[in-house]
């Protein structure tokens, strides 16, 4: 069933793996609504609804396998991840049919995916065009995790088949640079990042830190850091003030921080790049994207790895001091990817 005669609804299919996918699509949705205030937007995701703008219809649905993380999200459980992918692919026909029915019910004119491959299957079944936005594709992530297993070609082929039904990929920075031949069209777009527009003095006033001369270190990890680890880090480095998310907008905290401590990931990388804030990070294991993300991010900000042992022991002081001594980058990163993506989405709607 095609979209001809339908109201111009855009349905976003957003991976619930972490917060990064949801946060960046929330920025794109805000921009799209600014450009076209009458546009109806619906979201399908397993991510928390509060991450998205108010007034957007957010509905929970399972259509993405993601990756199973262990050890404070520093390691991927390859076996469990493969198991989840197999279960999803076994049920892909049923899921695609369910989501195609949802798209028809919603009178969808366009699907935007970040980056569940089954969104392509559902969109094709509903006769609706689909655009992908992301810095990687799941087949590229899964390839080394499946490690050439007997069913690896079948599983990766199913993922790529879904992507092959999408019309276009809007490729964000800090991600893979190969494996996009399955998409008819690939367009590079700037960073989609949370950018603070407030004055530093105003943010510090809200935090009650206007008379606090200590350096500020933001704990930027999703889910935070166990209190015992943070307490040891603070006790060993009393000259700094450790900030945690919650008091003000996250981008505001990144802006007023002298450094961020966090695992790698697109969201934190984009926020640090947007504000030229140095990053101290514990290396993750099994995350294929970290190699290219690290290589590209080093061109934008000072960054330094900390061993897993020192990180988990709260022994951060020497690494933070070394990070503070690194030369700042003079490269400025364009951060208007939300606007660029929204403009492309609107143009696609007008051409359909």
Shape: globular
Oligomer: single chain
CATH superfamily grouping of the largest domain: Glycogen Phosphorylase B
Alpha-beta content class = alpha/beta
Strand count, sense and barrel status of the largest sheet are:
7 strands, parallel
Please work out how many helical segments DSSP would assign: 14
Number of strands: 14
CATH topology of the largest domain: Rossmann fold
Uncertain segments: 1-6
Rounded radius of gyration (Å): 21 Å
- Major β-sheet strand ordering: 3-2-1-6-7-8-9
Give the ordered list of helices and strands: EHEEEEHHEHEHHEEHEHEHEHEHEHHH
Query: Termini separation (Å)?
Result: 15 Å
CATH class of the largest domain: Alpha Beta
**Average pLDDT score:** 93
State the CATH architecture of the largest domain.
3-Layer(aba) Sandwich
Question: Could you characterize what this model shows?
Answer:
The structure is a single chain. Helices cover 41% and strands 16% of the residues. By secondary structure, it is an alpha/beta fold. It folds into two domains: 9-192 and 336-351, Rossmann fold (3-Layer(aba) Sandwich); 200-324, 3-Layer(aba) Sandwich (Rossmann fold), CATH 3.40.50. It starts with 8 loop residues before the first strand and ends with a helix.
Topology:
Layout: E1 9-14, H1 20-35, E2 40-45, E3 57-60, E4 69-70, E5 75-76, H2 78-90, H3 92-105, E6 108-114, H4 118-126, E7 130-134, H5 138-146, H6 152-164, E8 168-171, E9 186-188, H7 200-207, E10 215-219, H8 227-236, E11 240-243, H9 250-256, E12 259-261, H10 266-275, E13 279-281, H11 289-297, E14 303-305, H12 308-312, H13 317-324, H14 337-351
Parallel strand pairs: 1-2, 1-6, 2-3, 6-7, 7-8, 8-9, 10-11, 10-12, 12-13, 13-14
Antiparallel strand pairs: 4-5
Helix pairs in contact: 1-14, 3-4, 4-6, 5-6
């Amino acid at each position: 069933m095609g979209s001809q005669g339908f109201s111009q609804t855009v349905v976003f299919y957003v991976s619930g793996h972490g917060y990064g996918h949801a946060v960046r699509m929330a920025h794109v949705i805000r921009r799209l609504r600014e450009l076209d205030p009458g546009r109806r937007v619906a979201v399908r995701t397993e991510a928390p609804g509060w991450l998205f703008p108010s007034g957007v219809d957010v509905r929970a649905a399972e259509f993405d396998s993601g990756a199973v993380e262990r050890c404070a999200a520093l390691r991927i459980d390859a076996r469990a991840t493969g198991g989840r992918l197999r279960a999803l692919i076994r049920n892909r026909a049923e899921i695609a049919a369910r989501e195609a029915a949802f798209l028809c019910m919603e009178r969808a004119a366009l699907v935007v995916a970040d980056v569940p491959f089954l969104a392509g299957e559902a969109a094709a079944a509903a006769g609706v065009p689909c655009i992908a936005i992301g810095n990687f594709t799941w087949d590229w992530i899964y390839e080394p995790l499946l490690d050439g297993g007997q069913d690896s070609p079948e599983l990766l082929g199913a993922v790529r088949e879904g992507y092959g039904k999408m019309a276009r990929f809007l490729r964000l920075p800090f991600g893979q640079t190969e494996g996009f031949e399955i998409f008819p069209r690939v367009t590079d777009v700037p960073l989609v990042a949370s950018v603070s527009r407030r004055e530093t003095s105003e943010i510090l006033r809200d935090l009650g830190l206007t008379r606090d001369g200590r350096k500020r270190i933001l704990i930027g990890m999703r889910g935070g850091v166990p209190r015992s680890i943070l307490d040891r880090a603070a006790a060993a480095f009393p000259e700094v003030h450790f900030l945690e998310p919650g008091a003000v907008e996250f981008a505001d905290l990144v802006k007023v921080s002298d450094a961020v401590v966090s695992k790698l990931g697109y969201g934190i990388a984009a926020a640090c790049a947007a504000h030229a804030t140095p990053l101290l990070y514990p290396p993750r294991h099994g995350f294929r994207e970290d190699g290219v993300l690290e290589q590209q991010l080093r061109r934008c900000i000072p960054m330094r790895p900390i061993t897993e042992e020192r990180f988990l022991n709260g022994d951060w002081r020497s690494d933070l001091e070394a990070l503070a001594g690194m030369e700042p980058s003079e490269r400025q990163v364009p951060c208007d990817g939300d606007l660029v993506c929204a403009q492309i989405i609107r143009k696609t709607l007008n051409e359909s």
